[in-house]
Specification:
The structure is a single chain. The protein contains 5 helices and no strands. The chain is flat and about 85 Å long.
């Protein structure tokens, strides 16, 4: 088969045929045989670009956050994030103190077993 000289007449391989036939190769040899039999599809697969870049622009907020967290205003760094940080900190403290108290209570109950009559 000769390579395509006029790219305007190039018709892409139908996508449904490409997806249905590509997943059942057990060996590299089977893939190569398929590539020889379907050169349009193989060209379409190899020319497909892979991009990990985001399609939408996201504003860089790092400089703002650096300024906020490096400001010397007497607030501990773990509370500088605002109300959400304060709530998370308080919830963590309540769960820690409550869990410690419950663990001590259970140790005390285990160390003084009930008498059997």
């Amino acid at each position: 088969m000769s390579p395509i000289k006029n790219f305007s007449s190039f018709q892409p391989f139908p996508r449904h045929k490409l997806e249905n036939s590509f997943h059942n190769f057990r060996t590299l040899e089977e893939l190569l045989v398929w590539g020889v039999q379907h050169p349009k599809a193989l060209r379409q697969i190899t020319q497909r670009t892979i991009s990990t870049a985001s399609r939408r622009h996201i504003e860089n907020k790092v400089p703002e956050k650096q300024k906020l967290f490096q400001e010397d205003n007497g607030i501990p760094v773990h509370l500088k994030g605002g109300v959400a940080d304060a709530l998370l900190y308080r919830a963590t403290m309540v769960l820690t103190v409550g869990g410690t108290a419950y663990a001590i209570y259970q140790l005390a109950m285990a160390s003084f077993p009930k008498k059997q009559d």
